[in-house]
Structures are given as structure tokens and as C-alpha cells.
Amino acid sequence: MDVAILFSVFVAGLALGIPVAITLGLSSLAYLLFAGMPPVVMPQKMYAGMDVFVLLSIPGFILAGNLMNQGGITHRIIRFANALVGWIRGGLGLTNISASMLFGGITGTAVADAASLGGVLIPGMKKAGYPADFSAAVTAASSTVGPIIPPSVPMIIVGALSGISVGKMFLAGAIPGILMGVAMMVTCYIISVRRGYPHQPWQGWGEVARSFGGAIWAIAMTFLIIYGLLSGYATPTETAVVASVYAFIVGAFIYRELPIRKVPGIVADSAVSAAGILALVGFANVFGWILVSERIPQAIADSVLSLTDNKFLVILLINILLLFVGMFMETIAALIILFVPLLSLSNAVGIDPLHFATFAVLNLMIGLTTPPVGVCLFVCANIARLPLAPVVRAILPFLLTNILVLLAVSFFPPLATWLPSVLTN
């Protein structure tokens, strides 16, 4: 009965459109009250979920991304991407995707990518003659690359949950992220050729060199982060602080587009964003603790293993489950609630933890572009001033492409494990 109350309140909250963090908190509180447990359990479990050292890196990476956004990075990356691929048929769509691949290494979050790049590229694509629904769909689909290519907030969460090195998690996402980006560019090109979308004239190698010179400081930030982690000179938290200082210096003194007077406001906005993520972590930890105490994860694992212990079938079932969950639940909440029990299931059939962690994050990133809770879809539809339905129809080819990459990563482990094994051993 108590578990029924938990899920009833949770489903009702999602159906009413209540934010996921608040829904998790309300459903957990309802369970505690109906079970006769003292409400003081809730803040205790929230604190336990947030009291993880590696999570301190999240505010640092968010601040670094916001400083770079305000410091002139967006249009420099777009200019560089446009110089590389803008001359191909459907060039602005290709620019959109390639910019997300470069930009994602700075922000670490898909929503920041969709909002920042979408605010520039969606109106630009519409003005150049691209349909509004296609412009929004390309932006939403490509934004999912951001949390896969390092640095990545979901990868940090996974590292905190599993004990896997955050540096290894970052490296594990690099090849799958590049594969997703390239596959979406191929899809975009095919659609553009078939529909006769426009392209721009070739601007010459001089423009490529000039635009690269402008973007190099931004691109170098990703390598700074990875080197700091792999060299052992800095923890993820220290690397995040270094990245924030680097972003401030580049924006204020190299690009000279970050006014010092705006820095306190950027810090405050970053603190609010980080607090929202950590509050979600706390509430999700309470919810996850309730599930564990009710032995629901064990029941799920036993149910799956009673059907099959074949590794490949288990991978397929996990993918189906996570794709379904990603349609309805926010990424970080889903990771905290489901990752540990599914990791136990994957261990039971011999799946490498690093491999499992990578395709689990990929699953939930794809969920950011699927209705009804696809946050990136809503952001891009709002920028394009469209209802959700036409954007959903336009994104279907890209969703199919991303699912094919997901299956490749799921059933061919070296795509996730090879790079970390080479660079960390």
C-alpha cells in the first residue's frame, strides 16, 4: 500500500506538470507519512545524497560554461563551424550539429546547448530559408551530444553513484558523442539534398584559419579539463575551478567580451542552476532509498534474470527500459533512481561497468528529445515559436539515427571502453 502511494503521487505530479524535483519530494514525503516513518528521515537522506565530494565539480563546470557563454564563445564556435561545413548542402544544419559538438565540451548540459545555440541558429536558419520545424529539430537533436562529449554533468553523477573514475567516464563518452554528431550530420545532409535546402558559398581556407584562431581558446578548454583529470594533477572539483578561472580570463581579457560588472550576476545565476541540480539529486536520493528499502530494484533484477541471463538480451531490455523512462523523467533523477539497480543487473550478466554507464547515459540523453518530457524539444519549439507536434515530426529521423548509434555502442563495448583503456593505463 505504501509503495502504491509513492507511485500514485509521483505519476500524478508528472501528469500535472509539477517539476520533477518537487514531484520526487512530494511522493517521498507521502510515502514516509503513510508508512508512519518520521519526516526527519527526508532531510537526512537528502544530505546523504548531496554529500559526495565529486558533486562539488558541478557548480564549477556550470560557472565555467556560463562565463564562456557570456564571454563571446557562442558566435566564435558558430563562425568556425560554418567556415568548415557551411558550404555543403544544408550547411547551416551541419553548422548547427558541428557547433553543438564543439560547444557541448564547454557547457556539459544539453539544455544550455539548446538554448544558447538555438537562440542564434534557429532564427538564422529560418531567415536563410530552412523550415522552422527542421531548424528546431536539428538544434534539439544535436544538443544531446553536449552531455556525452566531456565535460558532462550526467557523467559526473554516474561517477559519484558508481565509484567509476570521472576521467574515465569523460573519455568513455568521447567516441560515442562524435559518432552521434557525425551520424546526425549525415542524416541532415541526406534530408537537405532531398528537400533542396540552401547552402552558402565556400569562404576559403583563410576564413577557416581566422575562425579557428578565434575559437581556439574555447576549444582548448575541453583539453584543459581532460588533461587535468588524466594527469592526476587535479581532482574533478579542482579541474572545475581551474576551468572557471580559465573561462573568466579568456572572456574578460582575451575575447574582451565579458564585462567585469556582469560577473557577480553570472555567479549568482550559476549558483541557482547548480542548486537546482543538487536539490534534484537530494530528492531523487530519498526516492531511490525508498525503492531500495522496498526491494523494488531487486525485484526488477530478479524479474529480468528469470526471463533471460543472456547478456545481449539483458542489454536490449535495459535499453528499452531506459528509453521509455527517458520519455517521462528528467535525466539526473532517472540516473539516481535506476542506475545502481541496473548496474547490479548488468554486473550479474558480465557487462563492463564503464560500458554500461556509457550506454545508460546515451539512453537518457536521447530522452531529452522525446515527448512528453523532452526538455530540449520544448526549448527549441519555443525559440522557433512553434507548437510541439511539428517539431516532434521533424526530429524523428534524427531520433532514429541516435538510436542506431546507441545500439552500436550497446553491443560493441570498445566504442566506450577503448579510449579510457588506452589513455588511463
Record the SSE blueprint:
Elements lengths: L1 H14 L4 H15 L6 H10 L6 H14 L2 H13 L5 H17 L2 H18 L4 H12 L9 H10 L3 H30 L9 H27 L4 H19 L8 H31 L2 H12 L3 H16 L4 H18 L4 H15 L7 H10 L3 H24 L2 H10 L2
Helix pairs in contact: 1-2, 2-13, 3-13, 4-12, 4-13, 5-6, 5-11, 6-7, 6-8, 6-10, 6-11, 7-8, 7-18, 8-18, 8-19, 9-10, 9-16, 9-17, 10-17, 10-19, 10-20, 11-12, 13-16, 14-16, 15-16, 15-17, 16-17, 17-19
Q: How many beta strands in the DSSP annotation?
A: 0
Helix content: over 70%
Q: Give the topology string: H per helix, E per strand.
A: HHHHHHHHHHHHHHHHHHHH
Q: Any idea what the radius of gyration is?
A: 21 Å
Note the gap between the termini.
50 Å
Q: Find the structural class using helix and strand composition.
A: mainly alpha
Overall body shape: globular
What is the domain total for the residues? 2
Strand content is under 5%
Which parts are unreliable, with pLDDT below 50 for 5 consecutive residues or more?
A: none
Output mean pLDDT: 84
Major sheet summary line = none
Question: Could you characterize what this model shows?
Answer:
- With 425 residues, the protein is mainly α.
- The chain has two domains: 1-39, no CATH class; 40-423, no CATH class.
- The chain has 20 helices and no strands.
- Helix 3 (41-50) crosses helix 13.
- The longest helix is centred in the middle third of the chain and has 31 residues, at 263-293.
- It is globular.
- The N and C termini lie far apart (50 Å).
- The mean pLDDT is 84.
